[in-house]
Task: structure prediction
Amino acid sequence: MKLPSYFEKLLAELEPSPSYKEDQRSGHQTLRRRLAGDDAFGPIHVNTFLQGSYKRCTAVHPGKDVDVVVVTSIDPRETTPAEANDLLAACLERYYKGKYKPQSRSYGITLSYVLLDVVLATSTELRTKTALDEARTRSELEDPGAWLDSPLWIPDRDLGRWISTDPKRQLEWTTALNAESGGYFVPLVKMFKAWRKLAYDRPKYPKGYLLERIAGECCDATKRDHAEGFVALLENIVKKYGHYPAARLVPSLPDAGVPSHNVLARLTAQDFATFIDKVRGALETARAALAEEDKERSVELWRQLFGSAFPRAQGVSKAAFPDAPVRPNKPAGFA
Result:
């Protein structure tokens, strides 16, 4: 069964809570003020903006770390990635001593109420004082359109070189696809991430933006029902990528921001084979849930995919579910 009212409740459960969103906002705004006002780092600080699932509204409860991009006036032609990262680390040491650690392309800050993922960046377009002054006065956190219309460069610690990124293009891609699908793409991504989190722990990838990118490649933008859309997504993933594991290959999937980047480049063949195997299993369950005409049985099947976030069948005792379901006397919801 489609169970639209149940899926609406599921999506409400997957939405990060208002209190967590406020913690995220407080965390990244405090970081921004400290970076801009620091005596040593402040002169090279240009602006700060958000990227990632928090910015694209595809984060799932209870939320993940907030991705904060710190744009600087550093010249990547004259400064090595290691030198640039050292400048940011010295500043973080003054305010977050013992609470931050280096990552491949960022620094992770762990606070009691929020996790921050801080990425240092620069732009080859910010070479004049006029450009710098204009960028510093923009308020991107309040206006998502007010930022540089060009890719940024970030230091990759593992590769030892500067690499290009374009989070604004990623945001535009997600926004456009959500509009094309009538507002169903972002909820679909949330459901896909929730399923993946529950489905298995190891291997770690794909997760996060990789799932969002796979969903964008394989969703059916014509679907106007959450249950049908989820089944169609899984079907299309199997159709498009199901043959790769047999050849021990991983497909190439371009980044929506910088198409020359393959977002699946770091996945091993075994990582991808496990993912496809889990998708096949989920597809079997999702098809059965959609086809099931008994509401209680359909709900039970959907809960196998989404866990306790998917509501129980109305009128069924929690203590008895699912071993001894109780059929409701009145129709539940409008599904």
